[in-house]
Design brief:
It is found in: Cell inner membrane. With about 325 residues, this protein is α/β, with parallel strands linked by helices. It has 13 helices and twelve strands. The chain binds adenosine-5'-diphosphate and magnesium ion. Magnesium ion binds near residues 49, 50 and 182. Adenosine-5'-diphosphate binds next to strand 2 and helix 1.
Length: about 325
């Protein structure tokens, strides 16, 4: 058993609110990712995915703050590192790819300059060697005609090409941990498939650990080694891919799967039941999903469920998981 690349333990992230208790965006979250492992993280908008990603990168926007827990990268507690050390780690050893690539790119610099600057900053490489390494990277993310694209400006690129450039920037230093935060959602289906294939290939080649955040549970079926579902800042189900898709047990997971699935059993399960409640606010007490859950019992509104292991590696946070 190798040591995890990233190990999150009991993480709490809060955003203060004026005259109200803080928003607890991430609540007591545990997650470890191994070398060459892709963990998919699925959840609806506002469930805490980006906040988790930023916390791991130590980039929670103030006045938000990490209020508890620990994040270790290759055994080092990130909170204990000085800012200089952290800057070196970010970009070089861990990197993040986000959606909306255009906002990530500097419109005044060419593609080659932007990728090259990152490499120069972290490795001190320069001149012909730098240029060669950047062009190799452009080839690696399958940008056609890399010699010419090296001198292109961001506005000259299509959305798919811009996303590849952002990936090249994230990956140029061969980080050992990568977060992709909804990075493929703005792309059309064909381009998205190409980008995913590319990410998968790079993970294999460099044995990278990866947290792949998405709102589309369907993508994780082809792409991830394990899948986690986050709801109201908590992981409610996590399992190896095969177990996750063969035996989803959290009612919310089943709902998510039914929403995209063509599987008649899953669809009819939800169509037969009453419409889920429209109140989407997590409950203050008990199970956060209880207000929307068609299976909820009085007990669910009273007691917060813990994450428990139902099958090897398959964990669920539910008092009444869906029977197999
Ligand atoms: N900068 C911020 N200031 C205040 N609240 C925030 C901020 N960022 C996120 N939140 C809150 O944290 C929760 C989780 O948000 P986020 O992590 O962006 O979710 P997701 O990425 O899953 O859509 C939401 O309730 C959101 O309103
Ligand atoms: Mg987000």
């Amino acid at each position: 058993m190798s040591e995890p690349v990233i190990d999150v333990e009991g993480l709490e992230v809060e955003f203060p609110r004026y005259g109200m208790p803080p928003v607890r965006a991430v609540k007591g979250l545990d997650l470890a990712i191994l070398r060459q492992e892709i963990v998919g993280l699925v959840g609806e908008s506002g469930s805490g995915k980006t906040t988790l990603a930023r916390a791991i990168m130590q980039l929670v926007p103030p006045p938000g703050r990490i209020a508890g827990g620990r994040i270790r990268f290759e055994g080092q507690n990130l909170a204990a590192l000085d800012p200089e050390r952290l800057r070196t780690l970010r970009g070089r050893s861990m990197a993040m790819v986000i959606a909306n690539p255009r906002s990530e790119l500097n419109p005044l610099l060419t593609v080659g300059q932007q990728i090259g600057n990152v490499l120069k900053y972290h490795t001190g490489l320069g001149g012909k060697a730098l240029r060669k390494r950047v062009i190799d990277m452009l080839k690696e993310v399958r940008i056609p005609d890399p010699e010419r694209r090296y001198d292109a400006y961001p506005h000259e690129l299509s959305g798919g090409m811009a996303q590849r450039v952002v990936m090249a920037i994230a990956l140029i230093c061969e980080p050992r941990f990568v977060i992709s935060d909804d990075a493929t959602s703005g792309l059309d289906v064909t381009v998205q498939a190409q980008v995913l294939e590319l990410l998968q290939r790079l993970v294999e080649k460099h044995r990278t650990a990866m947290l792949f955040i998405t709102r589309d549970i369907g993508i994780t079926a082809h792409f991830c080694d394990r899948v986690a579902v986050i709801y109201g800042g908590e992981i409610v189900e996590i399992a190896p891919r095969a177990s996750f898709f063969a035996n989803p047990v959290h009612p919310y997971t089943v709902l998510l799967l039914a929403a995209f699935s063509h599987n008649p059993r899953l669809r009819s399960y939800w169509l037969k039941e009453a419409e889920p409640a429209t109140d989407t606010r997590p409950a203050e007490r008990g199970c956060p999903f209880a207000p929307r859950c068609v299976r909820a019992q009085p007990h669910c509104r009273a007691e917060h469920p813990v994450l428990r292991e139902l099958a090897p590696g398959h964990f669920v946070r539910c008092h009444y998981p869906v029977e197999r």
